[in-house]
Amino acid sequence: MTTPHPPHHEPDAPRDLVGIGIGPFNLSLAALAHPLTHLDTAFYEQRPAFTWHPGLLIDGARIQVPFLADLVTLADPANPWTFLNYLKSRDRLFPFYLAEHFHIERTEYDAYCRWVADHLPGLHFSHQVDAVCWNPERALFEVDFTHLDTDGEAEALGRTHTRNLVLGIGTEPHIPDPLKPLVDTPNVPVIHAADYLTHRDTLLTAGHITVIGSGQSGAEIFLDLLRNRPPGHEKIHWLGRTEAFAPMEYSKLGLEHFTPDYTHYFHTLGEHVRDRLNTTQWQLHKGIDNNTITAIHSELYRRTLHGGWPDAVLTPGVRVRTAGRIATTQVELHLEHTQQGTRSRLTTDAVILATGYQERPLDRILAGLDPYLRRDSRERPRIDDQYRLVLDPSVTGNVHVQNAERHTHGIGTPDLGLAAWRSATILNTLTGEETYRLPTRTAFTTFGLDHPTPRIPAARQAHHLTPLTDQR
Fold first, then answer.
1. Is the pTM here over 0.85, yes or no?
2. CA-to-CA separations, 250 to 132, 257, 292, in angstroms, rounded
3. Which residues on adjacent β-strands are paired with residue 44?
4. First to last CA, the chain
5. Separation CA 263–CA 456 (nearest Å)
6. Do residues 242 and 316 lie in contact, with contact meaning Cβ atoms separated by under 8 Å?
């Protein structure tokens, strides 16, 4: 595959953009920046190679967005880093065409991203970013990092300067407070779903297993365990806080909440309205895929064909009040049913927490920029409609964020389908040009009473940026 040659970087010259973290979102940005040969970019990641939720790459599990939601297609379908080009490079276009898979398996999405990461220049793995600060004398950001060796130990220290930053440090597993002491205790059989495949063989031998969490991950893990436990001796509890094991809203108009139009509308709302919406729209993104629900019911039904019921308990509307160890091999969960107001105890041999992920706090990485940050009433960073942190005007560079702006941009923040559009928006802002032409309307729904007006691309807005090519 022929790709553009990256610009030569002089060791002491400032870069145009430095990315911190290489997950799917910053990988998308790097892929869309790659053809822009006038941009000098670098991306740093402390892990030794690209990985995407390796503990949840369960056989048969599919991503919940169409394959067109790859790293680049929805902004630039002619880009060399599309999923279809990945298939072409593997001589798999015809098998994929005949398979008619609009939603691909997670393992295939992971392999596609690793293909991009392995071939795309400017990605620096085994580089841990330690600090970021603003140098007012040079009008540049200073980024200090540690180069790690193959064992993850410090090998060398380094520093680079850049005009702009983008943070894509991703999310981390959410552990409910009652279970944090058990997760942090060695040899206690309580793990987060992020580590499921690592412990799967051991979990399958446990006498009794409890899965906590009623979203897609919990459903996939419950189904995998169910299929691999003997009929009549499944011994699985599946508990969730939601009032039902509910399907994800997947109607066409419902999906329009994951369009740039809705993101723009959400950003214009007041802070208290945004916060309320983020707590009420869970079924748009935290429900269970209907095919997974069907597969679970079919597997449970299959186990009744010869009489009796499977030894599996599925109970929604339950929260874990407290938890503790019994001897060294079991866990006791103290449960409360939120509708009945009743309480009970459950003794189990293993607990899997399918309790989702939360945004990694930006405070540590941004400690050096704290005096310049502007925050909302809850001390969260303010983020403008171009995904930039709102900073003191004395800071002339931009700090963009990826997957850290749900409080300002809504439920589409972690959605893979908006990755390319957000990356293109960031690049248009940085270059001061309409480098990637983005549509002015993307949904049939008008989300407010105000008549929708076309959004002006960043390069056409009144507050023109100086193109990066003129800043040198």
1. yes
2. 41, 10, 13
3. 20, 124
4. 31
5. 15
6. yes
